[in-house]
Amino acid sequence: MELRVNAGALDFGACRPSLIVCAGALLTIGLHLAFSGLYGYQRDELYFIACAQHLAWGYVDQPPLIAAIVKLSLRLFGDTLGALRILPALAAGTLVGLTGYLTNRLGGGLYATAAAMIGVALAPFDLAVGSLLTMNAFEPLLWLMLTLLVFAQLETPRPWRWVAIGVVVGVGVLNKWSMAMYALSLVAGMAFSPARRAVLVPGLGLAAAIATAIAAPNIAWQALHGWPQLQVVHNAALAKNERVPVLVFLIEQLPLMNPFCAPLWIAGLYALLNSRRYAGFALAYGVLVVAELLLHGKVYYVAPIYPGLIAAGAVAVEAMTIRRAGYRAGLIAAIVVAGFAIMPLATPALPLPALLGYQHALDVRTVKMEDHPVGLVPQQFADQLGWNDLEITIARAVAMLSPAERRSAAILTGDYGQAAALDFLGRRDHLPPAISGHNQYYLWGPRGEHAAVVAVGLSRAVLAREYRSIEQVGEYRSLYVLPQNSNLPIYLCRRPRMPLTRYWRHLRDYL
Questions:
Q1: Residue ranges per domain, the chain?
Q2: Which of 29, 309, 476, 502 has the smallest number of Cβ neighbours within 10 A?
Q3: Beta bridge partners of 456
Q4: 84-127 pLDDT, tens per residue?
């Protein structure tokens, strides 16, 4: 079967989306908004709120776009939990809509379009990222936009599309550097495919130049600061990311995208690989997998490519099952049942007590992304819990400071999540500013000199190098956070041995 794109329809605006595409997108948005406020602010969301108060062309551990998006979200919708989740829900809905759109343009009918949209909407990865305001919420959408443009360009070349491709890649890099890896994988895949002559043309250089120009401010920022993001990636690969064998990496793609969705994306790989025009896209998938294995990337780093594979696979499955209505219905039913079964473990869909009980029947904590002990709940939920209790515990410690000490105090934390949570939630108790040596907080510095600090998440031995007086005044505990983030002593530290600005470099932690 030869897949074929209606390229004229991919000149956006030339064709009105079908009713099913719009309905699928709206239902997906509603699904995400329905559960958006069930738990709490996520660790990275709090961090990006902090970054939004310090807009820059770069940060230690991410490009600048997410901070700008969060700033826009705060201005438009406010800072409540539900408001913060509006933009990722819209991104998730748009992703599902564009998946249906691509399926239709590849020649898919009603069944293929519905199957592809349901597969993406109920994929655990897409459910998870669509419920949080992070870079990952926009990454699959940007990758799919690039896929749409490349497919259309292969079908009917248009000079303006190289400009659009360059813009999408550049904006994608400003969102997450992984876009550059995807773009390079596409070029590599196309270079070894029969379609190489349509891609290796001067227009590709134009697209690369535009993408580079858009990303240039972030590249310059990184260079001026010693390439800290490369240090973070290197350190994470060595000390944080879970290293998995090749076979495990491949097997764990199945629960990541819904096990019963595998027939769609595997069929998509096969159909694309046997297509003279689009074989490069299937080869790009292989390049991505190999690259992530070599770089010790996390299992989900290749997940944003799947909507394109699912769209192509849905068309192939539809063509192969014209006279097999039972198989068609069974496949969609299996995707739906599995999707809703896994949903409470991917996005906040159950109250916490119900989730704990549900895990006895279906537990995904064995699918680990990072190398550390697991707790009672999966990490994606553990990172949304316990922040209010931490703020209350720290507020009690701050109350022990004298009025004079409090005027110049700070809260010293071990990681950016703790610092960002205390900066954001501590407003209600007028807590001192939070400081940390972790990632971007390190570059923001100690915010002056402090006669006393309240410290959490650092060992007494580390604190003793800077403070002569260290008194434990409390302990933060939570049943539901990761074990490494619980049972943390709270210290009051006084009588610094040297100015904190001099000692600050010893606290740097790029991870």
A1: 7-345, 387-507
A2: 502
A3: 413, 490
A4: 999 999 999 999 999 999 999 999 999 999 999 999 999 999 99
